[in-house]
Amino acid sequence: MTGSQFGVFGIDPWWLVLLKALAIFVMLVLLTLFTIWWERRVVSRMQNRIGPNRVGPFGLLQSLMDGFKLALKEEIIPKAAHVGVYWIAPVISATAAFLAFAVIPFGPTVSIFGVETPLQLTDFPVSVLYVLAIASIGIYGIVLAGWSSGSTYPLLGGLRSSAQMISYEIAMGMSFVAVFLYAGSMSTSEIITAQEPIWFAVILLPSFLIYVTSMVGETNRAPFDLPEAEGELVGGFHTEYSSLKFAMFFLAEYINMVTVSALATTLFLGGWLAPWPISLWESANTGWWPLLWWLIKVQIFIFVFIWLRATLPRLRYDQFMKFGWKVLIPASIVWIMIVAAARVLRNDIELSNRQLLIAGAIVIAVLLVGSWFAQGALDRREAARKFIRDEIESRPFEPMAGGFPVPPMPGQQAVLTTRRSTIPVVQQEAIDG
Amino acid sequence: MTEVNLGEEIVFWFSGGLAVLGALGLILSRKAVHSALWVALTMINLAVLYVANSAPFLGMVQVVVYTGAVMMLFLFVLMVVGVDSSDSLIETLKGQRLVAIVLAVGLAILLVAGIGAGLTDVVPVGLDEANGVDGGNVQGIARLLFTDYLVAFEVTSALLITAALGAMVLAHRERWLPRASQEELSKARFTGTGHPGNLPSSGTYARHNAVDTPALLPDGSPSAQSIPGPLVARGDVRPVDHHDVEQIESLDGGSK
User: Fold this and answer.
1) SS3 of residue A191 by DSSP
2) List of chain A residues whose C-beta atoms are within 8 Å of the C-beta of residue B136
3) Backbone conformation region of residue A410, classed left if phi is above 0, alpha if psi is from -120 to 50, else beta
4) Domain presence at residue B57
5) Is A258:A28 a contact under the CB 8 Å cutoff?
6) Nearest Cα residue to A196 out of A183, A206, A187, A186
7) Which domain holds residue B211?
8) Cα angle, residue A326 at apex, residues A322 and A328 outer, rounded to 5°
9) Cα(A222)–Cα(A307) distance, integer angstroms
């Protein structure tokens, strides 16, 4: 893939590629350790506790120590486990989590040991699709873990998470479409440069909101953490995992959090571009400074993840699925149609802003009037519903309605018949006289 | 022929080999779930080959679509065939395995020979030219899909929607009554004859935690609601040991 627009990628010397890959690996592991500590501290603060504060300054080394302890614990593998798949599942999960970061941009072109290079491992025309593809490979880790444990709760957790992630991936993919339309590209570095005057979170607000919702579902985090709902499924897919294998799932979950946050930053918050008041400073978007802006934006998303976890109770499974399929996906489709129509109007037909605004006002007026009629129709349907229910329930049960033996309708009570053989002999004699 | 550089050759033999391995694994594994996993391996390696052939869009879409498809296959296996099923080794048709192998090898030789012979004289235009027409691989696919192949594209999407609708029709169940709302369910729970909340759990008595141990009410008598009905019907309820109750009372300083 050597298009002219990707000239800066794929020309790094081999040692620089290795260096970047190593830096990303180390950064992700450190971010995971930091995020676990940060989550525990923030949740504690929100619950009027202090949280881990013993190991290292402010308890910062707590998660490192927990990691050591976890890795050195005894490993228990269930007898019913399918050993090969049981081994490979956490490896798939953790590997996929690391892979997605290869296309995330951290900053503009900088100089590393005298070589001019972008702060990004690689980029190609379909980078964002690559992240989606890697995410769908990552699901395998969870599903296979659930299946191979040879136990009921993990199986249920694994199935739940596959259904959940496939459903929310659709909404997630659709929220990208509007971004692709506006950026004219699917490569992460070009999407960021397309946000130079204004971020996509502002002009494509519905896409942004849909993405943020579905990214919580995609990472199995509260309030969408149904695959590991401890009240229903013990630990879900990782119930039968212990020691280092469990640690790998743990690592994958936190890296996935960072990944989706980084993707949200890239697609909607201008990636490494400096936010408004800072962007007035001329050299805000040059050198190593953008790495800082990027990190701050990602940390804001991670804080929102933690905040959600501390605030919201878990959804019921059917409500969660209904929300994904009946709200998020239709809403994304409608929004994509609007965006596409607006693009065509802008590009092909000469429309002034004034005409666009008038057209928008007309559409809103039509929607308002329509919603008034729709409410009337809903009320009538509700009344009809109630009428039918009352009607059926008030009707007595006829066992031979229409001349045939029929079962009772719901709400009707069947007449219990007694068989002669089940009645005690004394009562039989009393009945017979 | 265009020359192939070393990196491409390594990718081809590595991914191609893994893809063939996945295909063989699909046929040779006894467990349906393992077969599904081998398919996933084949699909991912095909995607790598597409990317290596300067078709990044096709490669990524291959992974996104086929990992989902294999996942569905996996779920179908779990639901229809069972979690732990495996093929039996008895041949129902005598000698069919041998015939199948001979025919498969024959077909493979035919395909390799036919395609190989057909392609020897073809001079490739080159991937860069093919992708360069519209300024990129993605743009090229987009132009073809929305101009030359628009009808085929739309017909395919209509077919897929029909399939989805068909699945919904087959899975549809007629409702007799309007669905009860949460409010109605809650009212029914409290006004009905049943227990409004969770039943008292069994085995809360300190010495035992099995399901056949009844929970004790404040006065020390067993609660019938804490034992599953079938156990009561079988007469399998563990009697309360009054010695235990007295002992606990004495530990508690005799207060009731």
Assistant:
1) helix
2) 3, 125
3) beta
4) yes
5) yes
6) A183
7) 199-255
8) 100
9) 10
Contact check, Cβ <8 Å, B33/A409: no
Q: Give the residue among A106, A171, A107, A96 at the shortest CA–CA distance from A134.
A: A96
Question: Domain of B18: which CATH number?
Answer: 1.20.120.1200
Cβ–Cβ under 8 Å, residues B52 and A124: no
Distance from the A234 Cα atom to the nearest Cα atom in chain B, whole angstroms: 18
Chain B residue at shortest CA distance from A89: B37
Interatomic CA distance for residues A72 and A76, integer angstroms? 12
Q: Which residue of A has its CA nearest to B33?
A: A147
Contact B74 A143 (CB under 8 A): yes
Q: Write out the DSSP string of B52-83.
A: HTT-HHHHHHHHHHHHHHHHHHHHHIIIII-T
Report how far apart the first and last C-alpha atoms of chain A are (Å, whole number): 99
- Regions in chain A scoring below 50 on pLDDT: 1-4
pLDDT of B233 reads 85
Tens digits of residue pLDDT in B146-195:
888 999 999 999 999 999 899 888 888 877 777 778 888 888 888 888 78
Q: B132, B158, B173 — which closes off a domain?
A: B132
Residues of chain A whose C-beta is under 8 A from some C-beta in B?
Answer: 1-3, 85, 124-126, 129-130, 132-134, 136-137, 139-140, 143-144, 147, 155, 159, 162, 166, 169, 173, 186, 385, 388-389, 392, 409-411
Interatomic CA distance for residues A391 and A386, integer angstroms: 8
Query: Residues of B with CB below 8 A from A133's CB?
Result: 47, 60, 63-64, 67
Q: Residue A112 has which token pair?
A: 């590393």
DSSP string, A90-129: HHHHHHHHHHGGGG---EEEEEETTEEEEESS---TTHHH
In a domain, B112, yes or no: no
Domain count, chain B: 2
What are A126's two structure tokens? Answer: 């379909």
Measure the CA–CA gap between A311 and A1, rounded to whole angstroms.
Answer: 46
Q: How confident is the model at residue B249 (pLDDT cuts 50, 70, 90)?
A: low
What is this structure's pTM? Answer: 0.76
Mean pLDDT of B64-68: 82
Residues B249, B250, B252, B256: what is their CA dihedral angle, to the nearest 10 degrees? 40
Which of B87, B116, B132 marks a domain boundary? B132
